[in-house]
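Form 7-S
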Amino acid sequence: MNKKNISDLVIRQSEFKGEMGVARADITPPVGIYSRSWGSALHDSAEGIHRPLFVTSLFMRGGGLELYLVCFDLGWWYDKAHEAVIRQAILEKSGIRDDQLLTHMGHTHSGPITNLQNLEREGGHL
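Output:
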């Protein structure tokens, strides 16, 4: 993805008295990542890549509000503690406040599991 200034990503419409922007990045994991995310799986780690996975972010600013929606092509948060690790990284790198951020998982069984307990399993380090 080419780096752009935020002003290049802002869309202005006469009906909306604010700014919006969208960004997308490829988060496809490597082959071999621990990926047993459904009960009938016959293997624990990914043997190939069928389709890429993305993270998409929507930024909205107007009327005194500034909000960010970050959507992951991933399954689900295993628990609140695991989401907190990812949220904290986003907050630290972006400089936004916690109350400005909403995260969302698309719920797929075709991607890796967002579970820190899998770090010790085959491919979990990926």
